[in-house]
Amino acid sequence: MKTFSKPSEAIKWTKDRLSNYGYAVKTEKWQGIDSPDDMWETMNHSFQFFVPETLDELRKEIRPNLPWADDHFEERVSGLPLNPPPSHEWWPFAQKNNEQFGGHEEFSHTYPERIWPKNAGENGEDVILSGIRFAYGDFGDVIDLMEREPFTRQAFLPIWFPEDTGVAHKERVPCSIGYHFMRRGENLHIVYYIRSCDYIRHFRDDVYMACRKLIYVLDELKRRNWDRWGHVKPGYFAMHITSLHCFNSEKGILKQPKY
Known about the structure:
Layout (H helix, E strand, L loop, with lengths): L1 E3 L2 H15 L1 E3 L3 E2 L2 E2 L4 E12 L4 H8 L5 H9 L34 H5 L23 H10 L7 E3 L17 E9 L2 E12 H26 L1 H4 L3 E15 L12
Helix pairs in contact: 2-6
């Protein structure tokens, strides 16, 4: 895996690799609808960089779509399974009314819903969702685990759920697989697994919000147990992308400096 000292270096390398080594791929679907174009794609793209310690430096280095990325991040850590999340209305790349992406009132999934799934769905607070043997966990349970066992290997927050397998419902499914938090020594690291990432529309925001999750978790653990966590700093962010792509007709945009 290629390692960078700064997020901006990893982002530039990612763009250059897609631009210079991508190839056209025909796929049937794009976000649950018939694909409007071939994809310009490179597979199995991985990198890591050290996460800045301040949000100001993180924003400067990654250049996410602000203020939307901050608004949506707050929805992701709200503790509420929002569907739809209010920020979908001002997402910079929003489709017209988002009509083809999940119905008129609710989407097939949202990140807040997958991060806080216990009371998601029609029943809301009337029921706690259950898996095969046990009740669902959520982001709060991941943090609880890390408070109990700081060096655990089990602090994984899944976004891809069994109901997505095989896409039997024929709706959109998450691009993200999940986030793995792991403390080693005096650093807390995060590994982000994602099956599909559109460089132009999502990449910078995906990286930014994953890094913010790391900072959020670390701040929460310091608040709960300063003696155990107060000296711990952000470690590295690692990202594994199975399909990094943009539309074939948009690959020329990758040459533009602002991307």
